[in-house]
Design goal:
This protein is of the alpha/beta class and 245 residues long. The chain is 35% helix and 19% strand. α3 (69-79) crosses α4 (91-100) and α5 packs across α6. It is globular and about 50 Å long. The two termini are 26 Å apart.
């Protein structure tokens, strides 16, 4: 996985981090079906947080950076979220949201006063026990929200729904290890989660970008040799390296 700011993580390392972080959530009292909020720009930290929550059978609630504080506080209260995973630059927002909601634990990707570092989740358990992902119920998923004229609306996209989308997208895009797949802010969160999973599962290179500028995306795609773009909906824009045409 590569982000356009220069970060890079190997797929095996990414998977191991999710496994250890899910165990860390268990030790901090998080249970399957709990709502775990995520506040981070599109990139490895956001995907890590979302997949960690789902690995435990929780409902991941990715928060949109374009939402105002009142909307975010309303979403957290409506969904009874008690934990938020946040990128370090946005930790101040998370701390303020904790004052306006039932959030009791803030896990930050970095060392920020008033929060717990994400690295704490990765520590081995004191009693030597380990987390078995097969114990997760896998009947939750990703929670999205919108604020139409009638008020706040939330929608749960279950693991079953996401898995179905995974298989349909995998068949349609035929992603291979030679592909470079771009996930971007213009996508819906369920599409982003599923496309990233398809890319990583099939050994492709996954590129993430926090840029929310549509006209700049073709340049990003060209710079990284992207063959599959995610926004506004996942589609193939070129053949993998070495393919005919």
């Amino acid at each position: 996985m590569i982000d356009t700011h220069g970060g890079r993580v190997e797929a095996v390392e990414f998977a191991a981090t999710l496994h250890r972080a899910a165990a860390g959530l268990c030790r901090r009292g998080v249970w399957p079906d709990d709502v775990v909020a995520v506040l981070a720009p599109v990139g490895p930290e956001r995907l890590t947080a979302v997949y960690t929550a789902m690995a435990l059978g929780c409902v991941a609630l990715p928060l949109e950076l374009t939402s105002d504080l009142e909307t975010l506080a309303d979403v957290l209260a409506r969904t009874d979220a008690r934990m938020i995973l946040v990128s370090a630059p946005l930790a101040g927002v998370a701390l303020e949201l904790a004052e306006r909601s039932r959030i009791r634990q803030i896990i930050a990707f970095g060392d920020v006063p008033g929060t717990t570092p994400f690295t704490e989740l990765l520590r081995p358990p004191d009693d030597g026990s380990s987390y078995d992902p097969e114990h997760g119920l896998f009947d939750s998923g990703v929670l999205s929200y919108a604020v139409p004229h009638g008020g706040l609306v939330t929608t749960v996209h279950s693991h079953i729904e996401l898995l179905g989308a995974f298989h349909r997208l995998e068949e349609r895009l035929a992603v291979t290890p030679a592909d470079v797949v771009l996930v971007e802010p213009g996508m819906s969160e369920p599409d982003r989660v599923v496309l990233a999973a398809v890319a990583l599962w099939n050994g492709a290179t996954l590129v993430t970008t926090p840029l929310d500028d549509g006209p700049a995306m073709p340049g990003v795609a060209a710079a990284f040799g992207v063959t599959v773009r995610g926004g506004p909906t996942p589609r193939r824009i070129g053949g993998p390296v070495g393919s005919a045409g």
